[in-house]
Amino acid sequence: MTTVDRTTAAYERWLRKQCHVVESDLEAKHERMRKSPFDFLRASYFRWAGTIEATCPDLGNAPIALCVGDIHVENFGTWRDAQARLVWGVNDFDEAATMPYAYDLVRLLTSARLAPTLAVDDLEAAAAILEGYQNGLEQPHPVLLDEREHWMRPLVAGAANASQKFWKEVDRYPNASPPKAVRRALRRSLPCGARIERYASRAKGGGSLGRPRYLVIGDWQGGRLVKEAKALVPSAWHWAHADRSAKSRVLDLAFGGYRSPDPQLQVKAGYVLRRVAPDAHKVELADVSGQGLSGKLLAAMGADLGAIHAAHRRRASILDDVLSRGGPRWLHRAANAAESSVRRDFEDFTSSREGTPLRLKQQLR
User: Fold this and answer.
1) Rounded to an integer, what distance in angstroms lies between the CA atom of residue 225 and that of residue 218?
2) In angstroms, what CA-CA distances link 181 with 187, 268, 269?
């Protein structure tokens, strides 16, 4: 087995102790890790968490902040806030942990460099993200698509038949029987008077593949509602650093000081509950394939990340550190090293004879 195979096996042994693992989803995750370096990056935050300090040793002294951890260009999406406004931003904080703030910037840029739809060169991408990040630190605010960022609406709306496609997918999700506590939490998340049609399961995401996801599909006021419960486990950052005392920070970031959060996001019975709907979804690369990852979009991603970090008490220290590094070349160099590391790991994982999903599964048993 290669080092990557061993790390994957070790992480998944640990994961089995945190939640009930869906074996078929884990196998799908291994296949996805072989698809491209970008998909490998998305599905293997546990590997990144254990290597980024050695990959970028000069960033280890950057100010500490509560970070997203598993940030990448597909970790952005839309939701409705408490006033039903459409909001865009980072929408998955499963891997949130305290670390040097710069690691979030490096991972975001690395994912953009690995993405097949990057529409600017690598240095321009670094400049756009860093400019947006600095603006987000200095003037943090949520991205409200009905008020400020009108240009972004076509990118997040999806295809003309997006709603129809969404409900067809819902109809195809297989029936499931959630654990009693999860069933109760899902039932209570529905509005008063809603009628439960059925419970279901689904496989979604990259890094979270393998964790159980349950849905409740209900009928209310003449239409259907869907709520999801996804198993919550400690961040892989804590696993990589042998920190057994750390707790989940999902809600700390999701409800940070400069965000307009989804009021239906909550943690119950060891699961993250959220609303699932055509207007509450991740924005994937396919959604922006016409425009590509432009400098404007990357700057918006950087700004939202900056607003997340701005809620941390060391905001002034972070801004001073960004300014002291003198432009985007430091970020460009760090992402270059990180990209090379990810590509090496991807090649090792795809070329290893013992790295097949079947062999890896056998190693876990």
Assistant:
1) 5
2) 10, 9, 6
**Spatial CB neighbours of 77, under 8 Å, sequence gap ≥ 6:** 88, 89, 91, 92, 156, 280, 281, 282, 283
Give CA separation, 96 vs 2, 192, 247, 260, 307, in Å.
28, 32, 10, 18, 15
Enumerate the domain spans of the chain: 3-157+239-262+289-364
Strands 223-231 and 195-201: unpaired
Integer Rg of the chain from CA: 20
Distance from C-alpha of 211 to C-alpha of 121, rounded to nearest angstrom:
36
**Class of residue 191 by CB neighbours under 10 A (exposed 0-12, middle 13-18, buried 19+):** exposed
Question: Cα–Cα distance between 335 and 341 in angstroms, integer?
Answer: 10
DSSP 3-state helix, strand, coil percentages of the chain (rounded to 5)?
A: 50, 15, 35
Strands 195-201 and 213-220: antiparallel
Amino acid residing at 115: A
Closest CA to 264 of 32, 134, 87: 87
Compute the distance between CA of residue 212 and CA of residue 229 in angstroms, rounded to an integer: 8
Model pTM score: 0.93
Compute the half-sphere exposure of residue 83: CA atoms within 13 Å on the CB side of its CA.
6
Evaluate whether 48 touches 107 at the Cβ level (below 8 Å).
yes
Residue-wise pLDDT for 149-196, tens only, equals 888 888 777 656 778 889 999 999 999 999 999 999 999 999 999 999
Distance between CA atoms of 67 and 102, rounded to whole angstroms? Answer: 9
Q: Are 126 and 339 in contact (CB under 8 A)?
A: no
DSSP letter, residue 185: H
